Amino acid sequence: MNLKISRNTLAEFTVILILIEANYWALLSKVLISDIRFTVLGLSSLGAFVYLNRKIKKQDIYLLWILYIAVVLVNNKELAAGTHLNTLRIVLCLSIVFVGMYSEQWIKNIPQLIVLVGCFNVLFTWLFFLNNGLYEKFIGLTYKAYQPGTYYGAYGYRAGIADHYSQNGTYITIVCLALIASLLSDVEKKKKRIIAILAVISIGALLLTTKRAHLMFGIAAVILTYYAINPAKVFQKTFRLMLVVVILLIVGPVITEMIPQLGDTLLKIQNVGTDSSSLTRISMWTYAWQTFLEHPIMGIGWFGIRYSSLASSIVDATTGCHNIYLELLAETGIIGFSIFVISAVSSVIITFKNIQLLNYDEEYNAYRPVLVTSFAIQIFCLIYGLTGNMIYDRTFHFYIICVAASLSFYINVVKKGRTRDEKYV
């Protein structure tokens, strides 16, 4: 077997494992413990890294992510408490950044993999909407209790096969973005019809989840992505209008979290059975900000919010404060917060530059769908971080795969000013 094919296959296999864990970890936990799953992922990642061989390339952007790993590990409260699973999961996901630095070929199929692995969330959302009896059988065989957001099973389709309706909203949004990004990437007409149909079905599933923030943040990400791949239109009047729309789409969910009455007025149906969530999040945000003010330089340590005795008195605080920026400030201080923000913004800028190269050189058209997908999902995740736990939960899996794909293309194509020998593709 050709060595280069094996290298890329192994890297893709690692991506598949990360995507499976991201989408179906709750179900997998019923049949396969986390340590076993993470061991397989770790071996795959290590194997890909060794097989792709050599040492870490000296690139500033990779140094930033190495520093981010240090932010996660230094003064880590989960490790101090004698557990390790979430920390291990995050570090293993970060390994894909370094696995991908030696070849850009493995990234081409990422949009398809995101859709293929995640499509079951879309499928079962629709199936449970059409047949509640099927949902009841699913619950009886798996979770044994109705997931949050389903109003005690009355709206089971909202959560689908995820263990929370918010997570289902995230998983479906990622699929939607991958499909819409492909539509924006000038794919063949025959493929475009199929992708458009799948996109409509996926958007319908997202609407069924009733997740306001996911829908609005997703639309904002699509608009920004559209202008990223059409930079000439930035100077048109429509861009200014769309920029206002984007700001409203981003600010809207945050405002409705801060003013629960407004959220209930606008979308009462979404908050059935969960009306207190907004007040809870305000308590989390206030606590995180106060913690930052008390520990502004280094913070209280990674996962510190979850293990704080005071935070434990706040409902749902053990899952995070639902704003990654406030939580980063509280747990890692200005230092950790700056490292992440610089890393994230740099990755978005690099992805934008990659897309601009595609606009001027058709030689790289095969990479267009993955780079546009990468941009859209990165933007969504960073916006979603305003009201979610993106860098702490499984949403990070999708995000870091997209970061790795973009960095891989940048290092191996853009910085070299040429493509590799593609005879083995």
Detailed description of the structure:
It is a single chain. Helices cover 69% and strands 0% of the residues. It contains 17 helices and no strands. 47% of the residues are buried. Mean pLDDT is 86; it is low at 261-275 and 419-425.
Strand proportion, as a percent range, falls in under 5%
Percentage of residues assigned to helices: 55-70%
Uncertain segments? 261-275, 419-425
**Class derived from helix and strand content:** mainly alpha
Mean pLDDT: 86
Described by the principal axes of the CA atoms, the overall outline is globular
- Determine Rg (CA atoms, Å): 21 Å
**Distance between the first and last residues' Cα:** 13 Å
Count of distinct strands: 0
Q: Give the SSE order as H and E letters.
A: HHHHHHHHHHHHHHHHH
Reported for the largest beta sheet, the result is: none
The count of helical stretches stands at: 17
Task: Please outline what is shown here.
The protein is an all-alpha fold and 425 residues long. Helix content is 69%, strand content 0%.
Record keyword descriptors for this entry.
mainly alpha, disordered C terminus, single chain, globular, 425 residues, 69% helix
Strand and helix map with partners:
Elements: H1 3-28, H2 34-52, H3 60-73, H4 77-80, H5 85-99, H6 110-130, H7 132-141, H8 165-183, H9 189-209, H10 212-229, H11 237-258, H12 260-266, H13 277-294, H14 304-307, H15 324-360, H16 368-384, H17 395-414
Helix pairs in contact: 1-2, 1-6, 1-17, 2-5, 3-5, 3-15, 5-17, 6-7, 6-8, 6-9, 8-9, 8-10, 8-16, 10-11, 10-16, 11-12, 13-15, 15-16, 15-17, 16-17
